[in-house]
Write the structure tokens for this entry.
Amino acid sequence: MTIYALSSGPGLSGIAVIRVSGPNTENVLKNITFLPTPSPKIASLRKFVNPQTKELIDEGILLWFPGPESYTGEDMAEFHIHGSKAVIDAMSMCISKINGCRLAEPGEFTKIAFQNGKINLLKAESISDLISSETEIQRQQAIKIMSGKSSEKFNSLRERLLKILSNIEAKIDFPEDDLPSNLLQNIHSETKSIKNEIKKILNDQKVGERIREGFKIAIVGPTNAGKSSLLNYLSKREVAIVSEIAGTTRDVIEAHLNLDGFPVVVSDTAGIRESKDEIEKRGIKLALERAESADLNLIVIEPKSVDFSSFLKNFQINNSIIVINKMDLGIDHIRNELTKFNSIHISIKEEKNIDKLIDKIKENLKNKFISNEDIYITRQRHRINLEKCVEHLSNFEEKNSLEDFDQAAEDIRLATRYLGMIVGKVDVEEVLGSIFNDFCIGK
């Protein structure tokens, strides 16, 4: 089938792009333009016509990319038209009525590109991440993955495992051949090195996932301390209801924000206090759970919260910022007690020191999670496959003799497969190729 879809964003725009890909693409061009196919990869001005009524739909730019030298690896074309809903709908309707054409499914162009070997899974995922990036740090991470550094790393580790597997397979299939006496020792040394590299990659505090999904920040504290007001101020809109009535917030309210370039998911939670109300008690339990799983807690209290030491026992202070709100009410009488907590004093009402709070949040996240180390893992899928790889390499290390090679081969084969799953490459023929190249078997 030949697929088509609007590739530019929906809504009113100066220009819209409709992309077509598949074996019937050239026929689509002839039906819509009534002219010969233009030169490849050269923008051509064309009139786009309804094939049935011969009515002019629009005049725009046509780009033709014959396969396999296209994004998808198939014949592909792009119609650059004016971006009104009427023009887009008319063009889409005309293409849909051409034999063999259908509307593309979400991500189908990139899926075809992967299936045709134009990109690997990591690059396909990074394209999706780049499109959905909302902050500069997310864009930078997606670009780094697209550049291929992660693919190179995982492919390199996989090639080393394939080399080991070829040695093991050779010993199993051709036991009469002379192979190095220290073969098993060298194999174990290499697999240990590979396992340590993967474990180092896994020991990354999940920075890649945090950047992609957003750092989790929980606003917690006693009732009426200004938690909801802080969320609304950071969001620049009324996300949560603000009231002087204690216990207004019962559930967890989330807001996805761009905090000066940092992607964060800020959660407003129920005020923590002793309560007999069952619904409020459930909200307090959710608040404590959210605080426990957060990357950073903003513990908001106010000058009247003089006895807050028991409250702070519920939290890890090194994973929190103590925020004293309502500084306009005066906090001199408790300031000495707060010194040891390195708290920050703000007034949401008067908009004081909130910029300092934001700077402190950024500094905390940067010091805790952001480093100069290369990021290789951006999704849970990558992490699970790497953990499975390490598990099978650990199983392999328990094999101590050449007699165990049959079982050892299966461990290495599975470890190799899990690495291959990350980039979408699993091919047993590569093992045979490695054997032939390295051992010249059958010469």
Remarks:
- The radius of gyration is 30 Å.
- The chain has three domains: 2-115, 149-204+377-439, 213-368.
- The first strand starts at residue 2 and ends at 6.
- Residues 435 and 441 are 7 Å apart (CA to CA).
